[in-house]
Specification:
Structural class: alpha+beta
Radius of gyration: 20 Å
Strand order of the largest sheet: 5-8-9-7-6
Number of helices: 4
Oligomer: single chain
Strand content: 25-35%
Number of strands: 9
Order of helices and strands: HEHHEEEEEEEEH
Largest sheet: 5 strands, mixed
Distance between the termini: 51 Å
């Protein structure tokens, strides 16, 4: 547990470094990145503003210098941490490339799918019912962002994916969110068509 927390923190700070100094993670040739963070920009922005306002207020109302120092340190760390969380979404985006589709969510989800595992994609905006951002029901895995998804991925057959909430259950469809789902689906379909053409043309 402690090792997982430390690893998460290190990856978050690494993402913040990459974002600030404009050093994107390398992707394969011919691949494109697609964002998904816009859905939570308002929420994270509100948290940042409230946290920034709290810092001087706490400094004024706390009578003990030592406590003020600790509160200030924790407050500044919390602000930077939230910026780091936003950075992870900018650095680790969805990727569509020759080898397949890579679905991301910050540093908590990295789900690669090969094109031969995908039967089709379509744009369909949905709102998730209460139950969390990751839900599994009737073979459908929903990976929401701000309780919404915008892309449906139909799989060729039942597939066990490395997502903890599935508990090893195979899924036949994956739904996730992208800021520009039409562009993502168009790019994915081009690769999917090319893969199908090459497969059919093999002797």
């Amino acid at each position: 547990m402690i090792r997982s927390v430390i690893r998460y923190e290190l990856r978050l700070w690494a993402a913040l470094f990459r974002w600030v100094f404009r050093r994107p993670v390398a992707i394969e040739a011919g691949a494109r990145r697609f964002t998904y963070h816009r859905a939570v920009n308002l929420i994270l922005g509100a948290f940042l503003v409230v946290s920034a306002i709290e810092l001087p207020i706490l400094h004024l109302i706390l009578p003990w210098a030592a406590v003020r120092g600790v509160a200030l340190g924790l407050g500044v760390y919390g602000l930077i941490w939230m910026v780091g969380l936003l950075a992870t979404m900018h650095v680790h985006q969805h990727v569509v490339g020759p080898s397949g589709l890579r679905i991301r969510n910050s540093i908590t989800l990295d789900l690669p799918l090969r094109w031969d595992q995908i039967a089709g994609l379509e744009v369909r905006r949905r709102s998730l019912p209460p139950g969390g951002q990751t839900q599994v029901e009737d073979g459908v895995l929903s990976l929401g962002m701000a309780s919404q998804t915008s892309v449906d991925v139909r799989l060729v057959g039942p597939l066990v994916v490395p997502v903890r909430k599935t508990r090893g259950e195979a899924v036949t469809q994956i739904r996730f969110h992208a800021d520009e789902p039409e562009a993502l689906v168009e790019a994915a379909r081009a690769h999917l068509t090319l893969t199908l053409t090459l497969t059919v043309g093999e002797p």
